[in-house]
Specification:
Order of helices and strands: HEHHEEHHHHHH
Strand content: under 5%
Helix content: over 70%
Largest sheet: 3 strands, antiparallel
Number of helices: 9
Oligomer: single chain
Strand order of the largest sheet: 1-3-2
Number of strands: 3
Low-confidence stretches: none
Length: about 210
Amino acid sequence: MSRVAAYQDFRDRLFSGELQPGQFVTQKELAELAGVPIATAREAIQKLEHESLLKVHPQRGIQVADITTKFIRDSYGLRRVLELQAVRSFAQEENAETVRDLIAKTKQVLDTVQLRSDEEFLEKAVEVDWEMHDQIIACMRNELLTEAYQINAARLRLIKVSNRMTHKRAIDALGEHLGILQSCLDGDGEAAARALDEHIDIATNRALQGK
């Protein structure tokens, strides 16, 4: 397995909850989990530490990022900085087709989730949730911005390991998304930014309260 594959393997284990926030592991244990040499694991660990998903403590081991109040506030605060300006750009006529597609997908998933609470449909809600945020950033066509967003998105996914999507939260979040997207379709960037700002506030408070 290559360094890249080992890195992805560790990320998958973090986001599945197999490696718990705050947990200490050794470099050897991580290498054995992924079935890679220590040197390969070390390179993947360095990248994950750069993304603040792991923290190497000399003489103590490697700690999965601990989901503290500061970690939550910093991660959602960065989301706010990255996305509020981007959503103003997203609310442009040239993005109308993408916005309409997102609205249709969101409504379809919301209609289903309102009737079904199966894990499969909650996963679809999570997917369409992330798709909107991804598309908002993508419209900027800025590689540095996209890289910062993707690194922070990984932190947000780690926060959600111990704060999984529930049936009610899925319905509420998708409804909030529809409000943001409708403002974008109307070409009202300021209204979209206000709706997104409120959406991020709600998500931050839920994460802080563990709900």
